[in-house]
Amino acid sequence: MAPIDIVKYLALAERIRTVTDMTSALLQRRPTVSRTRQGVLSKRTLSTMSHALEMAATALGPDAVVIGAFERRTYFEPRAHAFQRLVGRGATVAVAYVGNRDTDGGGFHVPLHIDETAAEVWALVVYSPTLCGYVNAIEHGSYADTALGLEPARQFQAEIGFDGGRTREVIGELCDMFGDRLDRAVVDKINHVSDLRARRHDLYPLEDAWQSALGSLVAHTETTLDALRDQATAATRDQLTGLCNREGLDRWAGVVEDQTVPTPPVGVLMFDLNRFKEVNDALGHEAGDEMLRRIGDKIRQNIRSGDLAVRWGGDEFLVLCPGLESAGLEAMGKRIQAAIRTVTVGDKTADTAFGSQVCRLRPFHFDAADRALYAAKNAGR
Question: N or C: where does the chain have the smaller number of CB atoms within 10 Å of the terminal CB?
């Protein structure tokens, strides 16, 4: 994937610096802005907003406190450079995640245990004397549209806000979860910022304006991410069938640190064509390729939006179905099997067996589906 154009992001962050220079007359003409929003949001949206907050925090100077909770170390590592930059600007920074601190991002690390509630929280809080904002979310256990990948589609019950009082409450909730693992220097800095904010009475219009500026940054980030993913699509597609290839599956599923990471259920179907070698031997490889192309079309036509179809091997296919469990998975497998059996090239008709399993941990392993597939083949199904 091409690198993100950070120069454009920095230019937008520079716009945020100018928000405090807006005239009071302009702010008075603005409609009232709700500074807190709640709802079920995808991780992609949360990550985009978190990125926007990180960029904005670079303009706030040494009085800023930034606290992040990122579930697992593997989710924090891509953001480590942003936190290094914040520390370089003098901000007080603390990050929490499950895993050892292998990446030196500067600031303070809060180690989390995999079985505590804090390990299910995704949060990014910016707290300063002039401007505040936060993203605070907990795992919802479901998926949004998975077209861009499984990890970005994970859904969270989320709250996003720009209200100073509520930001202080969110920080308090995180401090309670972290307990004495949070360095005392961070707590002292939070109290210092609270004291400075208590002396000011003109913050809220500025925080409204900051919300609008961040909205522009978020929209730009989303657009850029879409473009970068579009550029990467060609490398993750099987040239013959147009289905996803193994590299694309890896990108879609996302990288996780270990097998102890739970995930909402993902149903898996594994198909293996019966006697496909006979097609190549009798009609030639061009005919075999044509059969595979038609089978790819049939699979695409019989899966849901958000499911992922993969050419797993020469005549093997996978279908991954987020949120689908055993009963619905078996029905889908039979529907796809019936569709594949309608494909005819020359005097040869396609046939297939399939196996299924439901994955609840990542990284995914398909051993159960593989065993079920070969049990079906041996049974003549």
Answer: N
